[in-house]
């Protein structure tokens, strides 16, 4: 039995009942694939269901505001995915009358759609013989064929794409692609896979050579950078606080947060008072204190945000503030959302 036949047989017996598997509609497939980039299925599924409920078609998604989309996306991370999702929804709606392109090359032109996502949509929605290569597929192919090329090197990416095309099942590409991804997700897992029940064990090179733990090979990540975040939570006498929208190309673009002091190290009360001068409140009485004595470390892919929240209580009003009742309606980073939930305005 061939490699692809074994994958198909395993998938038929073991596939999970996931909501996007009940359709081949490219909108649903695209939505699920974007959400599951860098996100576990268990975490992404509730978001998928929430988006489908609120935006049942790509036209509904295109008509939504960016703030609506970012709010629904809140907590899923990598927010550029949400912004790209919105941009592509508008392109598909305005340029293609709500119909997704039905070729790999045209799908690849959509914002936020790379090789993997274009291949997934092309094969699952349109039954085109395009191989998918995601983290799960890299792992399965690397171990089974004993390939030690780094999966995140230029040479490795090209090699694995070619290999994936050679071993794919063209006649049943839709199930095969889903099957090999599923196999990597629940059978050939990153740590301590149960090779005793694996249908590929008899011919797996990594198992034969005792290299399951060593494969796949990946070039080491960029060094993690520490950043010091200090949020000023203004509490006005009129039950208003202040939120500011992040701009620029850094993390959390267009999300809202409390006024931020970013520093090279932990800051003092003097630093806080100096920062408060720009908010026009020094002509009124105020008090401030550190809400969390222990630093909150919020971990992102290449950076750790060492965070303190400073509570600033004002006798008067907060200029250009937001009422306490409205704060939880704004799309904010999960770090800020967790604070809002804990503080209970």
Task: Describe what you observe in this structure.
A hairpin with a 3-residue loop joins strand 7 (296-299) and strand 8 (303-314). This protein folds into three domains: 1-16 and 127-220, Helix-hairpin-Helix base-excision DNA repair enzymes (C-terminal) (Endonuclease Iii, domain 2); 25-126, Hypothetical protein, domain 2 (Endonuclease III, domain 1); 225-343, Nucleoside Triphosphate Pyrophosphohydrolase, CATH 3.90.79. With 345 residues, the protein is of the alpha+beta class. Helices cover 42% and strands 13% of the residues. The strands form three sheets. Strands 1, 5, 6, 7 and 8 form a five-stranded mixed beta sheet that branches. A two-stranded antiparallel sheet has the order 2-9. The model has no long low-confidence stretch (mean pLDDT 93). GO terms for molecular function: 4 iron, 4 sulfur cluster binding; 8-oxo-7,8-dihydroguanine DNA N-glycosylase activity; adenine/guanine mispair binding; metal ion binding; oxidized purine DNA binding; purine-specific mismatch base pair DNA N-glycosylase activity. It catalyses: Hydrolyzes free adenine bases from 7,8-dihydro-8-oxoguanine:adenine mismatched double-stranded DNA, leaving an apurinic site. It is an enzyme of class 3 (hydrolase).
